[in-house]
Specification:
The protein is of the alpha/beta class. 39% of the residues lie in helices and 15% in strands. Helix 4 links the parallel strand 3 and strand 4 (142-144). It is globular, with a radius of gyration of 15 Å.
Amino acid sequence: MNRRTLIGLFTLGMALPFVSKASNRKLDFKDLKSTSELGVVYHCDFGQEDRFRTMLTNIRNHLSVYENNPLKLKVVVVAHGQGLKFFLKDLSETPWSQEQIKLSELHQQERDLNVTGVDFYICDITLNRLRVSREKLLDFVYIVPSGVATISHLQCVERFAYIKVQ
């Protein structure tokens, strides 16, 4: 393990008490900065559970190549539209209330990724359009003004690569 990896792990260790305390904090574009060598944004606007699980697996694999070091690779997931449902505590009183999704399993995988430095950004426009309460969101996600605008900002301004699981 090289010095940079040790520093990254130490930095991550120091940040762990704060990692999952986003409390649905709202972010502006000025807050979207990367301190890593590489950045990638995963786009989640789909509602298929299998596809979402594949995305989470891809993220884990992606991070493993970079030793799960957030100084080497910063991963952000931007969710809007149907992708919102995977970041809700439950689906009651939402357009997906009749769906049978194993949310607790997905939430654990998301939390595990969050601990390794993955950030989850949720579209405020989607929340408003679907009238979903912010209290229904998982505690470690961030709210961004617009999902698609955030993706374009990360790509064009912050030079993040773009990935969408098909």
